[in-house]
Amino acid sequence: MAEKHNTWALLVGIDYYVPGDKRRVKYRNLNGCVSDIDSIKNYLNTINVDNISTLTSSIGPDGPQEDCKNLPIYPNIVRELENITEKADPGDIVYIHYSGHGIMRSAETFNPDEDNAGDKMTGTALALMDVMAGGAYLTGYQLGVFIKRMVQQKCLRVTLVLDSCFSGQGLRNSNSQIGGYTIRSGEGNFDDGIIESDVEAEKIAGDIGGNPVSEFRSTTKIRSWLSDPEGCTILTACEADEVAGETRIDGKFRGVLTYWILKILSENPSKIRPTYKRVRDYVERNIHYNMPTRPQSPILLGETDCVFLGKQRVIEKPTSYLRQQFGNCVELDIGWAQGAAVGAVYGVYTDNEVAGFDYLRWCEAHITRIENDKPFKSTAMLAPAGQNAKSPKIGIGSRVALEKWAVPLNNWLDITSLRGNISEHHLRAVETEVANIPGFDCRFRSELAGVTVFSFGLDGNGRLELLEGGKVVPRVPKISLEDDGWAVKAAYVVSHIARYRVLQSIQNNDLGTQLRAEWFSFEAHVLDNYYDDEDCADHTLDFNNVNTVSEGDVLRFTFEMDDSCPLDFVYVSFFTFDAAFGTYKVHPGQGQSSVKISQDSPAEFGLRMSIPEKCCSEDPNDVMDVVRVFISTSKICWDEIALPNLSPDIPQFPRDVLILPADTLDPLSTEGGGLGNRNAKVIRSREDDYLAQNPKTNWVIMDLKIYVASQS
């Protein structure tokens, strides 16, 4: 029987802001933050959360209606965070929700230097109720100190939701109200002023974090632990260049992020709660559907594969969507640029279906056509998943998940060297299993007419080994004919290496949609400590060269847009192609398909270089890794190219996989004049010209090749 853990909640909502002249920034009152907290509290009560603390500031005739001890000010928040840390037992779950104004604490964040570039939480702050009257901000750094202690000292599992502006560069914006839509941020967007309460708040956080300060330091120079947390999940309202807002829904002002979170959590209370990733995806899709003129892209940081407010981890396959349907012929939003090929099979999951490993799929989509000029689309035919499958309700928006990959047609496996060295029975077994790989077939050399192929040979111990171009492929496990399921494993090895090669070869050669690599800079530095910018080594690694580092080196990767780039922003996603024939997304985290960057906000992440174990003594000591960045003018999900490291013990996808329900798009009824237009960042005219001439998604790939030298 599973051990039961308690759940603790701290809910903070600020509608009323005490007027004052202690800050250069003015915060207008909001209308939906206390309503957010009431709604969240009601939901938590339905799932039997007993330990709920609320700090709210409601608008009354003479100020806030709450008692002083229940107001959202710095001392009260510290008291409640400390109370949870003290009273909660190891393994307990903590939920923290903030609805209110957010602010940037320094203008530098709009032009990041190397100290804060790419950091989503550092240099931002929550604007508490009394900041204009002299109260302290709660910065991203300080909040990280308290949550880090919960996680590392008490082993608590923390969820932090920030429904405020600038919550995606760390941290609701009300300097404007347009057509019933209120933005949650202070006027001016940033405040670098320091008053006595800020110094005291920084001292408290420094003492708790074991890093006391004798004088005030700029928090923009200190990375927040929340930027890359462990044992913690953070869901923020928007990207740094977007705004979080509130609008009137069903007669009440509500925070947009909070509303959609509660919508998905309340839809199917009897079923397993969705993962954090699915919550984020659902919120984003519905915001974009209902508010196309006000894009708000929630950011997810930390551990994203747990059930919301739970500790169960869920292995999710990447999913795409069915976009158009003509009878049994459908269009999927997955194409050759994401590894799709004719013959690939996708399971189709309809609305309100939750599928575990024991779930019977009713329908499959078999890709039948891939077109060169449609890199992110494919055509498929629907087919029953089994003889007894019923006809499902398939429609636009249904999710599809890869069940069996395919490689481009006319790939051959040369088995000539096996003839005469293994029995005909064994030979037929190999042929049968390889024939099950879409796009593959076995042939003898006399039938191949000089085509370059993979081949199987036998090593000195009679084990199967894979060759490519006549050479043994290093770090590929060899397979004994005595192993159970050896033929299935052999076929999987061939299939895995072939797919890896296909993914390696993806490039955009269409000059009409190709972004120019010279518009971007992609480089890395060797560090002694990832968090210390002063420890960079002398040499810089860049994508124009093969770069050499040592095993164990820590590299900081930086991707920037050049001044010559005509675009205002692009979306990027980073993957490694490693020597164990695996591809892994390294940035952004699991919760995001890509990250949006501009000239003022480059992407940055760190990696420690390693060398996989040898499969045999002949494998080389050193390896070549590739860190690849996918760059596009629209948000593209590249997760389909993820591939686990090669192991013959995994001939198929892991079975502990959950396919989540298809996301329905829910029309939103708003009041108060509609959503209107918002104050968006002005796009340069040269970008308008560029996009007008290039209406399709434009994209390019850049590789940084890294030769990793062994220390042994």
TrEMBL record:
Pfam families: Peptidase_C14 (PF00656)
Cleaved signal peptide residues: none
GO cellular component terms given for this protein: cytoplasm
InterPro entries per UniProt: Metacaspase, Pept_C14_caspase
GO MF entries: cysteine-type endopeptidase activity
GO biological process annotation, one example: proteolysis
Domain called Peptidase C14 caspase: residue spans: 8-287
Family, per entry: Belongs to the peptidase C14B family.
Protein name: Peptidase C14 caspase domain-containing protein
Species lineage: Eukaryota, Fungi, Dikarya, Ascomycota, Pezizomycotina
